[in-house]
Amino acid sequence: MADELSKINSSHRKPHEQSGSADQRTAPETKPLSKVTLDMRADIAVLTINNPPVNAGSIDVRTGLLSGLTAAKENGAKAVVILGAGRCFVAGSDLREFGQPLAFPELPDVIRAIEDTPFPVLAALHGVALGGGLELALGCDYRIAAPDTKLGLPEVSLGFVPGAGGTQRLPRLVGISKAIAMICGATRISAREACDIGLIDAVTDGDLLEAALAFLNEAPRPKRPSKEQSAPQDGDGMIEAAEARALKRGKGRPNVAEAIRLINKAATTDADTALADERATFQTLRLSDDAFALRYLFFSERRAGTVEGLNLKTAGNIRRIGVIGGGTMGQGIVRAFLAAGLSVTVVERDGAALDIALEKIGESLKSSAQRGRLTHAACASRLAALDGAEDVAELASCDLVIEAVFEDMAVKKDVLGKVEQVVAPETIIATNTSYLDIDEMVSDLDHPQRVLGLHFFSPADIMPLLEIVRSASTSDSTLASGLKLARKLTKQPVVSRVAEGFIGNRIYNAYRRRAELLVLDGASPDAVDQAAQAFGFAMGPFLVSDMSGLDIAWAMRKRQAPTRDPNARYVTIADSLCEAGRLGRKTGKGWYNYIDGKPEAAPEVTEVIAQARAKAGITPVSYDPQTIQHQLMAAIVNEAALLLEEGVAQRPSDVDVTLTNGYGFPRWRGGPLYWAAKQDPTSLQADLDTLANGVGHGHRAGPVHKILALLTASNEA
């Protein structure tokens, strides 16, 4: 049998749904097949995909499946089971292939061969079945899954559309509106949900292979290609509502609109014609600027969780958490830990404050359950894992203790000192500081090597980014534990060294300062916000300030005041707003006035700006949106180059991961440094020169072109 599987039967090369032009396909090569094995169980052929770590659907896997089907026929199989070895079925196609011509057999070739076989083919799923993995399963006649399986089509989040039948076979099983939501939202669903909506046929708790064999043997299982089924009917208005949600969430990107168009074809067009359209659209979009940028981010995000030379096996096992501080940030951190299945003890200064914190956490969890975002059982489980205390001594048994108290060095040093006295020697101590010097913070501790920064972003249970800050004293095992914890929390980790604001806030402060200087020199806050949002930011800088609270940055500026260069340009507008009680949304007024929660231009702010300009002797000038955008980007890129030069960030791609995951930078642009690397160098330098003139005295020019050359040379862009 091994000899049979090592041969590629070129006679089974069939045309598939719009295979693309000839220059996109290469001839098959004869090679040993090690990624797919065949095992005959009586008259059922079992094809096992073995391409660790995640069984990516590479050319070797596709070739192995095609040859395995041929061998199954030759061995007289009456049915075939396809399953994955290791931890999952197939986690998707091999994205490294997507920026170049695709080799035969492509995935549609394999699926066409499955549909053309005279016997039924069943996909047995576990772990994850994503992207091309789910499309492979959709091409089979039947599907069963283990309870822990997650299924999804994430292609839209990568800049293109499903290209192997996902937009046609999925809606024919679950309906148009559900397919739009799942595909355009790049949503993963559970096996039980997939069974409820008709995506799979059964969920099995037992041995997956034995369940698959039993499923095929217990009743007649005729051929049942998904593409030959009719899409279930949607209720009135359901499709239109799904389209509107998808387009809003997709921010007008072309692949979202194309995905919607293709999905709708499942109800109006014959399958082969629609599949040809889908494949042609996929072939175009996979080579688009958006797709290249998003693939770059995909690999960058995985790289960001690594540190050269660090042995992740030295990480400790974290099960019980202590959180000191039950304010807004502390509550979000608690919810994040509870969601990861960890036990949490909250410590507050007194009983009244503790009661408020626990009550708000409970209300938030119960509200999520009432809205259907959390099952009632999961809500109860999380509440059972939560308790509170008024004394840090109650944290003695914790594996990790994190402080989330007021952003003041003396306060934080005092808290960390008390924690060190009561916890076990192996307990990790973390700080959630956004700006402060962790090296100074741990200077009085006996064991600073077990301290690191875990900088969550608000709301901590929602925002994906987690900056893991390594001080000069942090040990390798402590850092490895932080990275392991990030994975458990399903957060996107980025490792930073100690610096004012670390990676994200340091860059954001330069961005915000440039925005404020633009306002001082003539732009309106609304014009800056609109330009930023037109560029693709989720929100403009002044809307963000109002949402987070102007007092946060105000406290930082007051702390920095004694060391500020008196000759540097300083914008007093935000300080004046804070002094007037305009702290943002929480006070109903900040850079904008808020009426029923909606921002409106504030005449009072216009007057404050006019006074600041008059005091500084500035004659306001006008800025077009593109100039505003390029000045904001120049500030970001220049500051990123400075911190990379200083070694605060490990690599240029880590900056891009930080800004896209924590600061609303448009993912489809790849990140600020990826974007900058694609710009004309002469035009970029002109923007940097304008930035230097606008900032004035004290401006530091970063080695931007050197950093961009490094990014390009390392194939990160």
Topology, please?
Blueprint: H1 2-5, E1 36-41, E2 44-49, H2 59-74, E3 79-84, H3 107-116, E4 121-125, E5 128-130, H4 132-138, E6 142-145, E7 150-152, H5 166-174, H6 176-184, E8 188-190, H7 191-196, E9 202-203, H8 208-217, H9 238-249, H10 254-265, H11 271-285, H12 289-304, E10 320-324, H13 328-339, E11 343-347, H14 351-370, H15 376-384, E12 386-389, E13 400-403, H16 409-422, E14 428-431, H17 438-441, E15 451-456, E16 465-470, H18 476-488, E17 492-497, H19 504-521, H20 525-535, H21 541-548, H22 550-560, H23 573-579, E18 592-595, E19 598-601, H24 603-616, H25 625-645, H26 652-662, H27 672-677, H28 681-695, H29 704-713
Parallel strand pairs: 2-3, 3-4, 4-6, 5-7, 6-9, 10-11, 10-13, 11-12, 13-14, 14-15, 16-17
Antiparallel strand pairs: 1-2, 7-8, 15-16, 18-19
Helix pairs in contact: 2-3, 5-6, 6-9, 6-10, 10-11, 12-26, 13-14, 14-15, 19-25, 20-25, 25-28
Please provide a written account of the structure:
- By secondary structure, this protein is an alpha/beta fold.
- The chain is 46% helix and 12% strand.
- The chain has 29 helices and 19 strands.
- The protein has an eight-stranded mixed sheet with strand order 12-11-10-13-14-15-16-17, sandwiched between helices. It has a six-stranded mixed sheet with strand order 1-2-3-4-6-9, with helices on both faces.
- A hairpin with an 8-residue loop joins strand 15 and strand 16.
- Helix 10 runs antiparallel to helix 11 and helix 12 packs across helix 26.
- The longest helix has 21 residues.
